[in-house]
Request: fold
Amino acid sequence: MEKLWSGRFKEKTETVVENFTSSLSFDIRLWRYDIEGSAAHVKMLGKQKIIPKKDVELILHGLEEIKREILEGRFRFYKNLEDIHMNIEHALIKKIGPVGGKLHTARSRNDQVALDLRLYLRDEISDIVKLIKGFQKVIVSVAGKHIDTVMPGYTHLQKAQPVLLAHHLLAYFEMLERDKERFEDCLKRVNVLPLGSAALAGTTLPIDRKYTAHLLKFPKISENSMDAVSDRDFVIEFISASGILMVHLSRLSEEIIIWNNDQFGFIELPDAFTTGSSIMPQKKNPDVLELIRGKSGRVFGHLTAILTVMKGLPLAYNRDLQEDKEPSFDTVDTIKASLQVLTEMMPKVRFNKEVMRKASEKGYLTATDLAEYLVRKGMPFRDAHRVTGELVRYCIDKNKVMSDLRLKEFRQFSKLIGEDIVHHISVQTSVDEKKSFGGTSKKLVLARIKKIRIKG
Reply:
């Protein structure tokens, strides 16, 4: 089969070269965007009288037939035509004759490829933002059901202070909110029209890029043709935002895995989101969460790959840029699948409230509350910290918890301690009194949930 660019060449391309350079196996998913971009481009060519109106209509009709054939599974793809773009153009010429060759007027594959990838990511980012919002709603819903569930908060994976489970879950809402904002901001850089830049220098033909941008709903047009065909910052930014999202999903997965361990016993995962062992009948494994944790590495790898591809490229277009698509496509697939499975799983997780509360009552989690009690009595914090530490050491030596101590035992460490101390070092009071903005008190957490739902 003769290639669309064969005029310059005397020799036929080697099969090994065709196989090596072909991107059809993965860029086939851009077919819809290639047709959309081509339709807008040919309408602009007609408007500018660069090609006759009858040719525009013929090309548009041919593109529509190709679209229908692909949707119905009747379209024949040729690997030796390198990519989806040349497959569609070849089919168009075969279908409507030499007029189809006019489609590529004032256009290069360089700006065509950049356009298709931007159109693709524009749609995918919109879908991803919707998925993030859906997962956020689930988190808020679960948090709202556990506004009275107390659990240990951790630092260094050591029990630190009691917190509300709702407060802990809402921490992930905030992470996802930043993720959502990053994708929305990234969309501004994605949503720029490169078409009309041609190979790298623009074109001598009287094209109207503003009209093309209007047809394709691009709010901005690239300002420099060399930058437009070689820019993949938007891909780097998208995969970077995706990597940060996967960090958050991986952290949540890790915590759920830990909580599900019977040494914690904080939760029980639904059977439908776990797997068994091929040899140990008793096992119920959190494989779904482990896969999310593991798949984060795929996305991090894709970011490293695209950064490495771009770091040494001179202007303008280089074939290295073909390597932008597989990382982009796999990143999209990975983060969407991860968000979908977590959104389905989270409402079905069973939280063991009593186990969480009892865990909060062990480990001297209200020691900081005792120190702050002494501060309110006038003691400098560093002294209060030392006194509290000595009291905790005493409890450990005596195998007691602070609530077991009698007043005279407390007063061995400070005469400032009064009978009200038992109230101030209770787990419930500790949570209730964390009233500083952003804290874990029920009142603040309820206010945050209400604000989120109103903003909604």
Summary: The longest helix spans residues 109-144. The chain is about 60% helix and 5% strand. The CA atoms of residues 46 and 54 lie 9 Å apart. Residues 6-105 form a domain with the Fumarase C; Chain B, domain 1 fold (CATH 1.10.275.10).
